[in-house]
Design goal:
The longest helix is centred in the middle third of the chain and has 14 residues. With 70 residues, the protein is of the alpha+beta class. It binds zinc ion.
């Protein structure tokens, strides 16, 4: 029999007992993994601190989401 793959992706590390919260976590972590665009020059932004983002291209610093930019 083939090994069953967990559907829950990155949240698989939490095992049983976390229920719904896992789905929320998956949504957040998926966004974290995609490229974060600078709203000024569309370059790549990097998180400097919590909710503070820095663009590598235009070197602007701006506030954004804590874990990802929209
Ligand atoms: Zn920029």
């Amino acid at each position: 029999m083939a090994v069953k793959k967990k559907k829950i992706g990155a949240a698989g590390r939490f095992g049983a007992g976390y229920g719904k919260i896992k789905n929320k976590l998956i949504a957040v972590e998926k966004k974290q993994r995609v490229k974060q665009d600078c709203p000024f020059c569309k370059g790549r932004a990097k998180r400097a601190q919590k909710a503070i983002w820095e663009c590598k291209k235009c070197e602007k610093r701006f506030a954004g989401g804590v874990f990802h930019l929209e």
